[in-house]
């Protein structure tokens, strides 16, 4: 696992955005897996700035959604489809046709999960998957003790995750749905490159467990240790509990570029 420690969230966003721009130069129609929440916003902002400046071409890029709430009405501003369209697709000037995601409002949500798995495979698989991490180590909405071989499915959110997400619902946890559709850990691990971003001291313990702890279902993100090409980008605060932080700083300082993004 490659661990890159940056000064702050903005620096992490610039680094990942440049990596995505480089990927799109090599593969213009790359399928980018996107995450929601506040952590990846600097990436999307930096990438959009590159597009506006003519330094990145995203015209053929495709976007895949990681997860979705179950039961929110179509067009709800906090549905993840709405969030991805608003924060990624529109700023990059992409057509909505370039976007694919699971249907959390389907009459048969389980069938929709299976359909999304097939759609990802038919699209050739995800080239680069952005991930955030929960304070409990979840990725996507794979809560602790999720199967490391799991596929896209319905999950029940923990009360901690609902409380964490209440800020997107005017601070009212009662508005946060209890269920979600999420790519499973097994599905996530099939992406060609995984890029996990984490910022802030509140993520430090989860980052340490992910990078330096054992591979265990109690910390779903630790499954990234099993991936042949996983990169963890963290700011100083999120890296504060890493025992090998000094090594990671030294290793990255002597690389000519972010390797093989």
From TrEMBL:
Site (Part of the allosteric site): 146, 153, 155-156
The keyword Hydrolase belongs to this UniProt entry's keyword annotation: yes
Listed name of the protein: Glucosamine-6-phosphate deaminase
Ranges of residues in domain Glucosamine/galactosamine-6-phosphate isomerase: 10-225
EC number: 3.5.99.6
Active site: 67 (proton acceptor), 136 (for ring-opening step), 138 (proton acceptor), 143 (for ring-opening step)
NCBIfam families: nagB (TIGR00502), PRK00443.1-4 (NF001684)
Record PANTHER family: GLUCOSAMINE-6-PHOSPHATE ISOMERASE
